[in-house]
Specification:
Elements lengths: L2 E5 L2 E4 L4 E8 L7 E7 L6 E6 L5 E3 L7 E6 L4 E6 L8 E8 L3 E3 L3 E6 L1
Parallel strand pairs: 2-11
Antiparallel strand pairs: 1-3, 3-8, 4-5, 4-9, 5-6, 7-8, 9-10, 9-11
Length: 114
């Protein structure tokens, strides 16, 4: 059974930081590209950051320079370090694993107050 379990969301003031974690089980984690998506109320889900099997990273323009994605293939966990948060970052953040199949976590709420 595949599980992606996100944690680390919460309420933070503008300018603050949060680190999201996504612990994976039931998949060959090191063989999967891992992604973070977010969905704000009334908006489409959007790709925030991606890390390949080999560790190459890519970011949405809106978060470049503020967010950092990383992975620990021993702990089967992907992280999203979010700095300089602003209210526009408020959303539910989802972990996404991609290889031959794709899997989603349940999401974690991030709320940034002004």
């Amino acid at each position: 059974q595949v599980q992606l379990v996100e944690s680390g969301g919460g309420l933070v003031q503008a300018g603050g930081s949060l680190r999201l974690s996504c612990a994976a089980s039931g998949i060959s984690f090191s063989l999967n590209a891992m992604e973070w998506y977010r969905q704000a109320p009334g908006k489409q889900r959007e790709l925030v950051a991606r890390i390949s099997r080999g560790g190459n990273t890519d970011y949405a323009d809106s978060v470049k320079g503020r967010f950092t994605i990383s992975r620990d293939n021993v702990k089967n966990t992907v992280y999203l370090q979010m700095n300089s948060l602003n209210p526009e970052d408020t959303a539910v953040y989802y972990c996404h694993a991609v290889r031959n199949a794709e899997y989603w976590g349940q999401g974690t709420q991030v709320t940034v107050s002004s």
